[in-house]
Amino acid sequence: MRALLILMMVCWAGMGWAKDLRIGYLSLSGDPRYTQDWGYARLVTPPPDRTVDGARMAVDDLAFLAEALNIKPVLDVRESGPEGLAASLQAMVADGAGFVVLDLPAPLVEVVAQASADLPVTLINATAPEDSVRSACHPNMLHSGPSLRMTMDSQVQYLRAMNWLRVLVLVGEDPADQGLADAFTLSAERMRLEIVDRRDFTLAANPQAREGNNVKLLTADLDYDVVFVADTRGEFGRYIPYATQMPRPVIGSVGLTAQAWHWAMERDGATQVSSRFDKMTNGRKMSSADWAVWIAVKSVISGYTKVPDGDQAAVRDYLKSPKFRLDGSKGVTLNYRPWDGQLRMPILLATHDAVIAIAPIEGYLHPETALDTLGTDQAEFVCD
After folding, report:
1. What is the pTM of this model?
2. In what order do the strands lie in the sheet with 141-143?
3. pLDDT of the residue at 384
4. On the chain, which terminus has fewer CB atoms closer than 10 Å, C or N?
């Protein structure tokens, strides 16, 4: 009966013109997060592939449903340097895009948000994890990728569940490393873990700085259960596992990492999602950023199937309402928090080739949903 109904809807759709649903995708030319120019021999660097593949897969995934409802999703893909992002956004909106997915670093998300203030558009930040982007409280912005606080809370929940309560934090020199370590420390203190010390790793070759780049020296002279590594650019973290003074597990940027998605996930339809992405990209593994863009575009199309005659503001309101339920192939339905526009989601705790646990960890409870044990809850959320 259900198949017959869908067939009838498709036939009915074919009797009229499909309504274009234009969805923008805006990225940064030469985005340093996707370049390898700082790498050197034998260093595994981030892949240069861009996340637009995730957007294209979402359109393909929902093409049949959209066609049944007389909707034709159309991607408007644009890339610009920092100085041209605002103009690119304005051009997409002028061409009819009511939603624009952003694959941009946090400072440029803010630039685009300011440029969108008077435009009839909803922005979806897919790849900037900084909590400051959420607390900026742009009324027309949603966030499909996890916040830094969410990923750190997930790791801290796992540490407490494993009874690894004393943490040594190793931090790189990059400002992003400092921010990551700060976020972890905040989450750890909330859940009453002990940071036994925070030590800086330096890349200097000066023999007088050997205490800052010798792993055994950095991890000596104190007791701890686990080492947290803050190394966002992959400059030193690969040298930490199996090299600490005491035989201890490593988490953070290496070892056990917190991710929105992992190709080794085998539950809840995840294998099918990864397989479709592999096939579409000729073998590339789906990353967390790819998943965040995929789920962003899937959100928009799903929203318009429920509010087909609404404008972008009406669809955005629906996405932030309790009525919205989205399948992200993570075992639970997902939706956006009304107070900060953040997509609720489980976080995968994984090594390079296996998913070890999924947060929220069993036993962490919340009056509304266990997913709200990850990230900033409504009672503590404050706009900057």
Report:
1. 0.91
2. 71-80, 19-28, 99-103, 122-125, 141-143
3. 85
4. N
